[in-house]
Amino acid sequence: MKNRATVLCVRDGKILLVARERARWALPGGRIKRAEPPEAAASRELEEETGLVVSQMSYYFQFQGFSTLHHVFVADPPADAVPEPLNEIARCRWFAPSQIASLSASVPTREIVELFVRQVATTLA
């Protein structure tokens, strides 16, 4: 099983997704290097893929996909920070959670966002 750091980057009720050239939308993140703490991997991947630097992230949960264990973190980027597609990323964009279900997005992305939205709705209710 692969270990992946995955970031739910949330701003104004929208979630940041990234995509490689001719690929589906996904949450920012990537492989956790040997002996690298998951939070450090999440910060590194977010910066490498979008240029965003966040001062802190909150560990949210683990999500097990078919062959990958996602260590999911929630990040609240600075209000004036603008994500840019960097390195292997060709596109990055903010989406309302309701839009993500109908996008060409990875299954783990759709399911992680759905779990997050349900948890937030439960917390606010």
From TrEMBL:
Organism for this UniProt entry:
Paraburkholderia largidicola
UniProt keyword Aminoacyl-tRNA synthetase, yes or no: no
Cofactor field: Mg(2+)
Family (UniProt)? Belongs to the Nudix hydrolase family.
Q: Which intervals hold domain Nudix hydrolase?
A: 1-117
Q: Name one Pfam family in it.
A: NUDIX
In alphabetical order, the GO MF annotations are: hydrolase activity
Coiled coil location: none
**Organism superkingdom:** Bacteria
UniProt protein name = NUDIX hydrolase
| Keywords for this protein | Hydrolase, Plasmid
Q: From which lineage does this chain's organism come?
A: Bacteria, Pseudomonadati, Pseudomonadota, Betaproteobacteria, Burkholderiales
| InterPro entries according to UniProt | Nudix_hydrolase, NUDIX_hydrolase-like_dom_sf, NUDIX_hydrolase_CS, NUDIX_hydrolase_dom
